[in-house]
């Protein structure tokens, strides 16, 4: 590790470069984006010389600087990196660099660590840039109130901000609601501040999720794009900002940070605040390029799931709260028959839980429903060769529960009175050590007693007035609640090394890379309607690889939308993730069971490809259609799904490119028949499809990937699977 003060340093990996000028008290990012090659002395000096902007009319008399820790002192009039005060004073931070360390990784990337002292705010701070082998840039910020300080320092915000060039002219982020998560929205990168705030105690169903700036009209496979994600499971803020005077020599800014409530972070002398990690990603290959970098980062983690992802059956939409041993064993029989490898017993197993109005917080097996405990059902599941999982909602408490009656002060609410319930429940203050210990021990005891393989960890409401009753008064607690959640998950996994955990939050209300550091799967949505699910998962995969996304076969009539869809379409949508079933197999006919069994076999055949390959999306002109693919890391095989969600004016698809294939290669393409017949809105398929349906056709990669091929005109809510194998 070397001292880097006064030098230009570069982190490079996977075609990405970050160049930072450490000269003086105010380090600057000179470049973030395409790799510039070896940044020698000449290039470094040229970047430094061209980083000084003009002095404009009616502006400070020195050139403005956009530093790595932007402040008003530098002439930055936008959102600052740091906001805080000491009882209304020390509101204008002036961090000065005092130490810089640079470490280059042997496989690319590395770290630049900067330490600052601030004579005005009276604080010390640390900033670390890290670049991994996938080219993903992580930014970690912290601020400390020194032990010798005479007063507390209140942190109102600490944000990671990165400048962008003016060609980043368009923005993409996400909104949504329950059962329609991660709905994209695009807008121009206009003057002013585009700020998205998640103030629900979690990212929420309307989470910004991923903020992307890019060259105008960027798509899945084209355009230069810059993205930012906040790896945090509490309140958060994303922003894109453009001022008339620019940001130093660059034009605009993107960033993110934890959204802190007033008085939430009070640093007493000797205390430190560690801001959540913010991840930045660049690609010149469109949105799929961003996605590939995030997926590569996640798959490189030591704890990333490496065993085949088992086919799951979740009991919720099969039985709801009607837990009956004989019926559940019958479902287990059918599950084993079709090839299920894990059964998860959902909500309704614990004390007093006959509906959604009682029981949360007690976490004791209901003896009236389960007089012999869960053992008989667990034994039945294991005897049929399947793993066993169980549903919990540990961060919640029902007013009608023994825990709420014994400890009403454990409800996360002002002492003046608890507000209204949501879904008949309140939030449990797990930052309270006693509440934390009770939940931990109850869950841990059940995991040990039944040797549970898997937990489905739910969180079904927003945090409203999230303050805790403490000796010094009501204190905002979203940050502490989130840290306590992380600690709880970490402790359970430390005690039970084989345990897998799925994060669910009313479906997709808490999907972020902070929670995924501690869990093995996300439940992307409570909606099993395949029309909605296809859209939700397409955008969830922008950040999360398919092996970490649960996707289930639902009933013919959707529980959440009442839409009716064919079995073949539901199976096609559920296949290309961590597949599962969430319907009552005991009412399925013999033909449907045979088709589901064939689908389960197909999942086992293809899951290594699905769970390790690169996600690609065709840029199609018709928004009612989707062509999505998963291409093996060696390019030898790919699986593409051609789907139509609704009708559209176009009668023909035109030539559609299969992205991710090699133009110089040759491929055999065949339609997989296992999911059953697909309804067409045409008299006959394009001519080339006939042999593809009958067993396969060989085509050059130049035709598939560059020229494109016409695809069948499907009826709405239909899909085809193309299995593509390189033959030369």
Automatic annotation (TrEMBL):
Keyword field contains Magnesium: no
Domain Glycosyl hydrolase family 36 N-terminal: 26-267
Top-level enzyme category: hydrolase
One annotated GO biological process: carbohydrate catabolic process
Boundaries of every Glycosyl hydrolase family 36 C-terminal domain copy: 630-719
EC number assigned by the record: 3.2.1.22
Coiled coil regions, renumbered to chain: none
GO-annotated molecular function: alpha-galactosidase activity
Catalytic activity: Hydrolysis of terminal, non-reducing alpha-D-galactose residues in alpha-D-galactosides, including galactose oligosaccharides, galactomannans and galactolipids
InterPro entries: Aldolase_TIM (IPR013785), Alpga-gal_N_sf (IPR038417), Alpha-glycosidase_related (IPR050985), GH (IPR017853), Glyco_hydro_27/36_CS (IPR000111), Glyco_hydro_36 (IPR002252), Glyco_hydro_36_C (IPR031705), Glyco_hydro_36_N (IPR031704)
Pfam families per the UniProt record, alphabetical: Glyco_hydro_36C, Glyco_hydro_36N, Melibiase
Signal peptide extent: none
Swiss-Prot/TrEMBL keywords: Glycosidase, Hydrolase
Protein name: alpha-galactosidase
